[in-house]
Each structure stands twice: as structure tokens, then as C-alpha cells.
Write a structure and sequence with these properties.
Endonuclease, Chain A, two-stranded antiparallel sheet, 14% strand, 4 helices, alpha+beta, 169 residues
């Protein structure tokens, strides 16, 4: 257990390499962000947590097996990790951050492309929602009382070509 570290784990490195190779830039383990996420993407207002299935108690996962010795200690430790995770996620979401959790089992070679493409979709959706201009649609009343979007001017005024050419000369 002493050789297990909290940062730069194999699953985290996989996610980081994929993001970097696809043009996404990030910061690692930012202390100023609640929960000290593994990957912080300020431009996307997104925090990515790469969770180990055992340490965070990923239920119904082949990587999560309940320990057979010192059961009480491990159950208490894993449940406290889960509670702390939920508190951190809630705090981040209340502050307008998008929280993405990637589980260790989702990064198996046969699942990594699908998982990371789903992460990419979430990042792009968040980016669009943050930076999209909201254009107002102008409506007018039609003859039967329904509101319709206005596509063009009601009475367009076109220039007379001869008059226009004479003005240019």
C-alpha cells in the first residue's frame, strides 16, 4: 500500500495523455479548487476526477472487491472517501463547475476511446454554453394571430440600378 500514490497514477496519466494529444490544455491538482481535482480545465470550467475503483468504492465493478481482512477499517475508509467525493462534487457544481468522473475500469484498452470521446462531448458542450452568443429572435404577429419568426424586412427597399450607377460616377 505504501507504493500507491494519489497523483500521477496510471489511469490519470492515460487521461492526461489523451487530452493533451487532442489539443486540450489543463492544470494538475490545483489546490485552490475544492476537492483538488486531478485535472482542472479553467477554460471549460471543468474539473475531472480520475477515480480508482477500489479506493472510491465503484459498485458493481470488477476492479472493486471488498477486503477480507480488517473489514471494518476498509468499509469506513471507503465510505468516507465516497462522502468526501460527493461533498466536493456538490461544492464545485454549486460554484458553476462541470464535474466529470472517470473511473479506472472505463480506461481499459477496449473502452478508453468511447470513454474519452464522451468526455470530449461534455467539454465541448460546456465550452459552447459558456461562450455562445445568445441572439434574440424577433417575432411579429401573423394574420391568424400566431407568432412567427421574422426572416426578412416587411417592405424591402431596393436601389434602382441606374440611379446607383449615376451616383457612383
Amino acid at each position: 500500500m505504501a507504493r500507491i500514490h494519489s497523483s500521477a497514477t496510471k489511469p490519470e496519466v492515460l487521461v492526461r495523455h489523451w487530452l493533451w494529444n487532442h489539443g486540450y490544455r489543463y492544470r494538475l491538482n490545483v489546490k485552490g479548487v475544492p476537492g483538488k481535482p486531478d485535472i482542472v480545465m479553467r477554460r471549460y470550467h471543468t474539473a475531472i476526477f480520475v477515480n480508482g475503483c477500489f479506493w472510491h468504492g465503484h459498485e458493481n465493478c470488477f476492479n472493486y472487491r471488498k477486503p477480507k481482512s480488517n473489514i471494518e477499517f476498509w468499509e469506513k475508509k471507503i465510505s468516507r472517501n465516497q462522502e468526501r467525493d460527493q461533498e466536493n462534487y456538490r461544492t464545485l457544481q454549486e460554484n458553476g463547475w462541470q464535474v466529470i468522473v472517470v473511473w479506472e475500469c472505463q480506461l481499459a484498452p477496449k473502452h478508453i476511446e468511447q470513454t474519452m470521446s464522451e468526455v470530449e462531448v461534455l467539454l465541448n458542450d460546456k465550452f459552447l454554453s459558456l461562450y455562445q452568443k445568445h441572439n434574440k429572435v424577433v417575432y411579429h404577429q401573423s394574420e391568424d394571430g400566431q407568432k412567427l419568426p421574422m426572416a426578412a424586412e416587411t417592405n424591402p427597399k431596393y436601389r434602382d440600378n441606374k440611379k446607383y450607377q449615376n451616383e457612383r460616377n
